[in-house]
Amino acid sequence: MTTETMMTTTTIEAFTGPLSGYRRVVIKIGSALLVEGRTGTLKRSWMEGVAADVARLRAGGAGVLLVSSGAIAMGRGVLKLPKGKLKLEDSQAAAAVGQIALARAWAEVLGDHRITAGQILLTLGDTEERRRYLNGRATIGKLLKLGAVPVINENDTVATTEIRYGDNDRLAARVAAMMGADLLVLLSDIDGLYTAPPQVDPNATLIPVIDRITPEIEAMAGGAASELSRGGMKTKIDAGKIATVAGAAMIIASGKVAAPLSRIDAGGPHSLFRAEAAPVTARKAWIAGHIEAPGVITIDAGAVRALKQGRSLLPPGVTRVDGDFHRGDTVIVVDEAGVELARGLVAYDAVDARRIRGQNSAVIEDILGAPGRTEMIHRDDLVLKGDFGD
């Protein structure tokens, strides 16, 4: 048995139902589940139930990562900040206070099962910029090998509206993709994906299994359901696109019960999004999972056909370049009707891309005054839309 699956000295029963057999599991926990909204106090007994569930997953051989909201909600209670939307500086101050309390609480409840917790604070840039992404993956991977449970949250003390995830659903999906997880569990205040928002349509029914995220599935998503929550079903579907293309199944289930993972394993209601049968490579999963894209490249019909045949994007097929980006950034590729076709790592800065768009590759050196790459986006750096969800 590896240190990643190291057990406590107390015998713990492993899961035997739907949660059994997974190698690495990411569990996302929302603020409303952790924190009492009126008082800002932590729901300690609920956390203890989750810690016991984590121990059961580890008993079955899984490495476990927690993506835990709650820092701002806890901090605003301690600092006695007003209800409603907070100013940026108030949110950052609340996060600074709440992160300490939240990390301590997780360390204590996991420690009851002789499990070590390690705190990881990420920003959007940590998973969007390749070098920082690889560094983060190495650190988290080392914690898992040493038998710890990484407790991950967005670094709200430094993140701003323009450079943040804004919800931990997509952060959890990016972590699942980054760490090669085979299961992502989103614990929420709803049992799963319904045919329509159940609070609006009394005839809405739960969808137990989703084979692929289609436009019809996306249309079933509703809005945010809680003052403490920044996300809604839409962000969970967005998370599903990121996770499933990277090879991770995703479960949405209610966390409004004690030991919510035990309830799932016992056959409780939930929605399972199946992983893609042929997941993209880790590098392409990283490209496809980008939340922010600083530029858009429009291409003609000939270039569209070339991309669909597995070829690179060349300058002659580019008709328009929008945005301010740099070489190596992820950009969106659209057809002349504005329909997104792909995402890829561009080989030129925006200013140079505009200069060579529509030009034959043979004249790039004359235009730029220096040798340039033949491809605007190489096929190895390109992910077609159909490969990361429709």
Describe the structure.
Helix content is 35%, strand content 17%. It has an eight-stranded mixed β-sheet, with helices on both faces. The radius of gyration is 22 Å and the shape is globular. The relative contact order is 0.11.
**Into which percent range does the helicity of residues fall?**
25-40%
Unreliable stretches covering 5 or more consecutive residues: 1-9, 223-231
- Structural class category: alpha/beta
Biggest sheet strand order reads 3-4-2-1-5-7-8-6
| Spatial separation of the terminal alpha carbons | 40 Å
Can you count the helices?
14
> What's the main sheet like?
8 strands, mixed
- Rg over C-alpha atoms, rounded to the nearest angstrom: 22 Å
Order of helices and strands: EHHEHHEHHEHEEHHEHEHEHEEEHHE
Strand content: 15-25%
Number of strands: 13
- Nearest-integer average pLDDT: 86
**Judging from the principal axes of the Cα atoms, what is the shape?**
globular
